[in-house]
Amino acid sequence: MAGNSLKSSTFRAEREHIWKELDELLHKAEKKGLSSLTSKELLRLPNLYRATLSSISVARGISLDLSLVTYLENLTTRAYLQIYGVKATVKGSVAKFIFIQFPNAVRQAKWHVLISFICLLMGTITGYTLTTANQDWYYTFVGMDDSRSPTSTTEDLRKVIYNENPGEGGDLSVFATFLFTHNAKVGMLAFALGFALGLPTIYLVFSNGLMLGAFTSLHASRGLGPDIWGWLLIHGVTELLAIILCGAAGLILGAAIIFPGKHSRLDNLAIEGKKAGIIVIGCVGMFLLAGLLEGFGRQLVTSMELRYLIAFITGAFWLLYFLFIGRGMSRE
């Protein structure tokens, strides 16, 4: 026992200054970050870490006391986390998502995005065509509770579009809130139900197009087609694109089950689900942005030309963003 105690004392005396120096650097780094260390200290840190790892091997080899081994293990664990641990900040993670992960995920899902877009377009054309032929279809696609309906006068519809009755702006506000809530719900459901082979996703995106087409038909029948699209596209460029992308995410889940490839269906769903999840998280931000555009644009911008200009700018922004941002950069 005395021999072991002597070996332990000698061992400590020869190496304790290394452990203390490492502990001091770690304490400084843990409290203020690695940026608080000087260049000399940063170069010294991995050397002290390796020397301490060597001390653990020796301590275990000569069966030194357990408390010393435990201390050294804790010390090297702290050092490992500082040297090799993930240093990503919240700001850095958000920036990586916005500038790399989200646009790359959308580009990789280009065929799913195209299919989702076609579903929305076909729904819009169908809703427009049926409602133009018989306006009773409006109630089927849009519902009975909307304050704007085939029974509304043309002047009432125009006043709502241009917010000409500020004291009576509830109509537009209520519909805008309904539209945003409805579209966000459709987008989330289109993704969540994608596991059912993508069929509910196709239905939801198509039905959203039916509502959009019917709504457009009503206003077009009163000579207000360009006017209503000017109002819709302020926020609609972003909002409808988010719906299309959510639909694409749902189709990714459906395709993962139908075409599992070399993986099992469950494993492939987990793999593809991560990619689809990135798209949906990005769409949440798009829906929020659309809500801001809709809220401010509805009240502050009443010129049809300016509304189309805003729509063009947002459309060009998203086109450039998804085509070029983060291209060639890994999203991992």
What's the short story on this structure?
This protein has 332 residues and is mainly alpha-helical. Helices cover 80% and strands 0% of the residues. It folds into two domains: 2-84; 92-324, no CATH class.
Largest sheet: none
Q: Could you spell the SSE succession in H and E letters?
A: HHHHHHHHHHHH
Cα distance spanning the termini: 53 Å
Could you name the ranges where pLDDT drops below 50 across 5 or more consecutive residues?
Answer: 167-172
* Overall shape: elongated
Strand content: under 5%
What is the overall number of helices? Answer: 12
How many domain modules? 2
Helix-strand category: mainly alpha
Mean pLDDT: 84
What Rg is obtained from the alpha carbons, in whole angstroms? 30 Å
Count of DSSP strands:
0
Helix content: over 70%
Outline the secondary-structure elements.
Blueprint: H1 2-32, H2 39-61, H3 66-84, H4 90-108, H5 110-133, H6 137-141, H7 154-161, H8 170-192, H9 199-220, H10 225-258, H11 265-300, H12 304-324
Description of the molecule:
The chain has 332 residues and is mainly α. The protein has two domains: 2-84; 92-324, no CATH class. It contains twelve helices and no strands. It has helices at 2-32, 39-61, 66-84, 90-108, 110-133, 137-141, 154-161, 170-192, 199-220, 225-258, 265-300, 304-324. Helix 1 packs antiparallel against helix 2 (39-61) and helix 10 packs antiparallel against helix 11 (265-300). It is elongated, with a radius of gyration of 30 Å. Residues 167-172 have low confidence and may be disordered.
Features:
332 residues, mainly alpha, 2 domains, 12 helices, elongated
